[in-house]
Design brief:
CATH architecture of chain B: Orthogonal Bundle
CATH class of chain B: Mainly Alpha
Order of helices and strands of chain B: HHHHHHHHHHHHHH
Structural class of chain A: mainly alpha
Largest sheet of chain A: 2 strands, antiparallel
Order of helices and strands of chain A: HHEEHHHHHHHHHHHH
Radius of gyration of chain A: 25 Å
Number of helices of chain B: 14
Number of domains of chain A: 2
Strand content of chain A: under 5%
CATH architecture of the largest domain in chain A: Orthogonal Bundle
Oligomer: heterodimer
CATH class of the largest domain in chain A: Mainly Alpha
Helix content of chain B: 55-70%
Shape of chain B: globular
CATH superfamily of chain B: MetI-like
Chain lengths: ~325, ~290
């Protein structure tokens, strides 16, 4: 989970210098003791972040500029930026198709999930038993990716449910996951299917925060449902839409568990994405340097796209 | 909005979507009851010819479900327990104690949420392999398999969660300082204040965070897959089921795989249905998955 967009709170802690100002006599000793106690409370978390956050980041950065076979830490061989240039060299598959696949996968997922959740959320808002509907749409989110991936993989088989439906409609079977042209869209559908529930949740909350008086005023002015949706619902839903967009895009750019389960990147490299390539370079080919370099390139892409989205939505906000 | 007319179109849309959401689950359950040669063959049939429970017995035997369940339960319990404890401790310090560097530490905790997990798979694995004085390693982390052959390896990278600390701190800020001050004047130490006064008041956040963590830990696949390749004895449910699915003829074993999936999904689904309000609140607070 990436939570950079978690709702910000504005409560401010009392300023620490006030504690320092009273650092005389008994009060000072009490303050000092509280500081020691505070760091004792924080010690497990800080220790963890040192070993599992700071150290790995440094290690990954070092590896991204080294060649290493993975056994003796003394054998790490610095190679400068070779791993990075190797990723973008002629004949490298990293830019196309892998990075392209990654973007298409994320883009497709966001488009499908956004369209689906917007449609369902605006409709659910008018219905009874909203809790029941939400529960149903939420089931995929609490289900392990191994279950989701295997059930859908099986459903895409020639003898599976999807082709069963196609055949019943008089259409021919499609080898969804075996055909390089359909494999990526097929996986995108599953990723969108699995994430639409949480998008509905966020959009429903956004819809509920729009004051009913706006709709009443629009109705008095004789606005049709289309105008109401375009002029009131959509603009006021912008923060929720931004939230869904950014977080879904982040997830789409990073996730590869579903692809490992369903296609392992195949057929060929039709569904190979950057995070999966990183994983394979490291754990199948033992090329830790290239894997680490790929991870940092992907991180940069993720960061750039997120910032771009925030910037676009903010600019649109000023124009309106 | 037009609430007077019965919203036929909305009902139709929402119901269609709900059917699309639920049908894969039903297909999973139906397939798990299909007999030999019945799954994956043409023409497709949704219902099994006879509800045959023998796949569930086969899943328990072929998959070694007891071992997989044990590993999944241990890893999930370790992660959930540790995240709740460390979040509560750190959250209390950040919300209710005054000390130099507090703003810095808080910002540090927030920044830990920024880094995507894929940055860490490689270094985390290497760090565990070269963990000093474990699994036959010497002091410099050489010579053995390190912590990767231990069941704690499944839990190690998830024991502390920046979002958990953030969530707990936000909740604890609302606890009035006067209550804590009164306890301190009565001679309670900070640890006693935390344990006797703060922890009992943070039950809602414990349930929410615990549930989110539990579901994530139970469903975790990539890291467990890595650790299981180093030591098959610590294989978890998702990894074990995927392994069976990858290595055996799918038309024959598909019902067994589905039976295993049903059994592995069931605990989380039941927990979610019982406590969904808390879970949904957690997802609202944490952002998307």
């Amino acid at each position: 989970m990436v939570n950079t967009l978690a709702p910000e709170t504005t409560e401010r802690a009392p300023h620490p210098t006030r504690a320092a100002a009273g650092a005389l006599g008994g009060r000072g000793r009490a303050r000092r003791r509280q500081a020691v106690v505070a760091y004792l409370f924080l010690a497990p978390a800080l220790l963890f972040f040192a070993v599992f956050l700071a150290l790995p980041l440094g290690f990954a950065l070092l590896l991204s500029m080294s060649r290493w076979t993975g056994f003796d830490l003394g054998d790490i061989d610095p190679v400068g930026l070779d791993n990075f240039t190797g990723l973008f060299a002629d004949g490298s598959t990293f830019l196309t198709p892998i990075l392209t696949n990654t973007l298409l996968f994320a883009l497709g997922t966001v488009a499908l999930a956004l369209a689906g959740s917007l449609l369902v959320a605006t409709c659910i808002d008018k219905l009874r038993f909203q809790g029941l509907w939400r529960t149903l749409y939420f089931l995929p989110i609490v289900t392990t990716v191994v279950a989701v991936g295997n059930v859908w993989k099986y459903m895409y088989e020639p003898g599976g449910l999807v082709n069963g439906v196609l055949n019943a409609l008089g259409l021919g079977s499609v080898a969804f996951l075996q055909d390089p042209d359909t494999a990526l869209p097929a996986v995108v559908v599953v990723q969108a299917w699995a994430s639409v529930g949480s998008a509905i949740l966020v959009l429903t909350a956004g819809l509920k925060s729009i004051p009913g008086s706006y709709y009443e005023a629009a109705a008095l002015d004789g606005a049709g449902p289309g105008t109401v949706f375009l002029r009131i619902t959509l603009p006021l839903l912008r923060p929720a839409l931004l939230f869904v967009c950014v977080t879904q895009f982040l997830t789409g750019l990073q996730s590869f568990a579903l692809i490992i389960v369903m296609t392992k990147g195949g057929p060929g490299d039709a569904t190979d994405v950057a995070a999966l390539e990183m994983y394979r370079q490291a754990f199948s080919h033992g090329d830790w340097g290239t894997a680490s370099a790929a991870a940092f390139v992907l991180f940069t892409v993720v960061l750039a796209i997120t910032l771009a989205q925030l910037w676009i939505f903010r600019r649109k906000g000023e124009d309106a | 909005m037009n609430r007077r007319r019965f919203p036929w179109l909305s009902y139709l849309l929402v119901a269609t979507g709900a059917v699309l959401t639920v049908v894969p689950f039903l297909d999973m359950v139906m397939t798990s009851f299909k007999g030999p040669g019945e799954a994956g063959t043409l023409p497709y049939r949704f219902l099994p010819r006879a509800f045959d429970p023998s796949n569930y017995r086969a899943a328990v035997d072929q998959l070694d479900l007891p071992l997989l369940f044990r590993n999944s339960v241990v890893a999930t319990a370790l992660i959930t327990g540790s995240v709740l404890l460390t979040s509560s401790l750190a959250g209390y310090a950040l919300a209710k104690l005054r000390f130099p560097g507090r703003d810095f530490v808080f910002r540090l905790v927030l920044s830990t949420m920024m880094f995507p997990p894929f940055l860490f798979f490689v270094p985390h694995f290497l760090i565990l392999v070269h963990w000093p004085l474990a699994g036959g390693n010497d002091l410099l982390g050489r010579g053995g398999a390190g912590l990767t052959v231990s069941i704690v390896a499944l839990a190690m990278p998830f024991l502390v969660n920046g979002f958990g600390i953030f969530l707990t701190r936000q909740f604890m800020i609302a606890i009035p300082d006067e209550v804590l001050e009164a306890a301190r004047i009565d001679g309670a130490g900070e640890f006693a204040v935390w344990w006797r006064i703060v922890v009992p008041q943070t039950k809602p956040v414990v349930v929410t965070l615990g549930l989110l963590t539990f579901v994530d830990a139970w469903n975790e696949y990539i890291w467990a897959l890595l650790v299981s390749t180093a030591d098959p004895d610590v294989m978890t449910l998702p990894v074990g089921i995927q392994l069976l699915q990858d290595h055996v003829d799918p038309t024959r074993t598909m019902p067994v795989v589905m039976a295993g999936l049903v059994l592995s999904v069931l605990p989380v689904l039941i927990l979610f249905l019982l406590l969904q309000k808390h879970y949904i609140r957690g997802v609202m607070l944490s952002g998307l998955k």
